[in-house]
Design a protein that fits this description.
Oligomer: single chain
Number of domains: 1
Distance between the termini: 36 Å
Radius of gyration: 13 Å
Structural class: mainly beta
Number of strands: 7
Order of helices and strands: EEEEEEE
C-alpha cells in the first residue's frame, strides 16, 4: 500500500479498530485476525488518523461448509 498510509481501520462484526501499518521493502502491510463465524469485514485506509476518501473496501467470506 502507498507509503503515506499510516494505519487501516478494520470493522469486524460492528467493532472498529485502527491497526498500524508495517513497512517492508517500500510497501506497507497490515495484519488483522477475523474471528471464525464472521461474515465480512471492512477496511478503510488512514493517513494520520483521517480516512482516505473512497478507500473503504468490504470483504465477504463465502459460506463455509463443515467438514
Amino acid at each position: 500500500m502507498h507509503p503515506d498510509i499510516t494505519a487501516v481501520r478494520a470493522t469486524i462484526d460492528g467493532s472498529a479498530q485502527d491497526v498500524g501499518v508495517h513497512p517492508r521493502n517500500g510497501a506497507g502491510y497490515y495484519v488483522i485476525e477475523v474471528p471464525e463465524g464472521s461474515e465480512s469485514f471492512t477496511v478503510e485506509l488512514l493517513v494520520d488518523g483521517d480516512v482516505v476518501p473512497g478507500s473503504e473496501e468490504t470483504r465477504a467470506f463465502p459460506e463455509r461448509t463443515p467438514n
